[in-house]
Specification:
Radius of gyration: 19 Å
Oligomer: single chain
Helix content: 10-25%
Structural class: mainly beta
Largest sheet: 9 strands, mixed
Length: about 300
Amino acid sequence: MPVLYFHPEEEWSPLPVERFLNVARIERQTAPGLWTQTTSGLPTSTVGCTLKPCYRFNLPCPLKNGDRCYEQTTPALSDWKRGYVYGRVVSVPGGTPAPVGIGVAPRYLVRYWLFYGFDDWRSSNERLWQAHEADWETVSVALDDSFHPIFAAYSQHCSGTVRPWAKVHLNGAHPIDYVALGSHANYFERTSSPTQFLRCVYKNVAKADLSKARRIVGAVQTGISDRTGAGHVLGLPQEQASLQLVELAGLLPSWARFPGRWSEGELLWVGRTPTRFTRVRAGLGPATPNWNATAIPALWHTDSS
């Protein structure tokens, strides 16, 4: 498992999904843009749905009002005494290409998934904000036929970085992961990194709102980066209890088969409190992970540093 280092100002720890489900509502889209709470249990299929997405989770806070309400839910959705990580091993079919720059094709992917109750990225000057409910991030370790590590792959916004195992910093046998403040993007180095999240935002913003999104970002100009630190540490080998592994083997639990989104949406805004003039919708929020994915996405880049 990875050893996770968090910025000292990070509020949201990786938690068990059940704590989020205890707070979130399940809603169904009954008309375009109209969502109604459902009490018929956790759906695992979209049978009978005519709209996409059909379902979503929604915390009892209006995202359009900013992060204050969400911060009040922190005690229920964050706990630094013990973090949780979901693990699943998948076999990679023969002929699957290795990521660009990696010479050996993987035979297995050991995939670790981290779940956070809220994504709350802010520019360093706290003028530009991006937020959505729930956040799924992943760290993968590729193995060869002899179970030797080949590379590690860390998710970062809508992309990620692959690094050959020989270049991965380790604590014992554990890959070190610096988790970015608020966004929970994962980095191999403890440095402030230019973030690719704007590329993700522009990809997800509706065409009619693109010019507004660019104006919002342009009003900030500086501080658009991911910040890391070592204020919280989870998963040190001598303290394995601080990072609890939940293995997802065999039949997946019902929440892992949820066919909807884990948020009421995603917003980008400038200033501390979003208004209809200073905010723009930047996507639908995260979907349920593809637990059985057997390849690293082609858009992830290989870092040999």
